[in-house]
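Notes from hallway chat w/ T.B., transcribed later so I don't forget. T.B. wanted the structure written out for a chain they're using in a teaching module, and asked if we could keep both sequence and C-alpha cells in one place. Agreed to drop them here.
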Amino acid sequence: MKLSLNFGAMIDGLSVFLIGVSMVFVVLLILIALIKLTGYIVAIIEGKKSTKQEVAVTIVEEMATTETIVDVTAELELVAVITAVIAASLETTTDKLQVRSLRQINRHRA
C-alpha cells in the first residue's frame, strides 16, 4: 500500500471546515443579538406599563386625606377580590381582565 498525501485536497478540506465553523459562530452571534434586542424591547414596554400604574397611585395619594386613602384602599381591595373571583370562574388570569366600573345593585323589592 502506498500512502500519498495530497496537500491540496487537505488545504481545501481545512478551508471548508473553517468557513463552516465561522458561519455557525456568526449565526449564533446574530441570534444572541436578536434575543438581547427582544429582551430590551420587552423591558421598555413593561417599564411603560409600570410607570402608568405608579403615576395613578401617586395622584390618588396626593389628592386624598388619610381617611379617604383608607376608603380607597378598601375599595381597591374589593375590586381585587371581585376580579380574582371572576378570573377564577372564567378559568383565566387577572391580567386578562379589565374592571371599568363597579356599581351596587339594590335588590330590595317591595
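Follow-up for T.B.: The chain has two helices and no strands. Might be a good example for the class.
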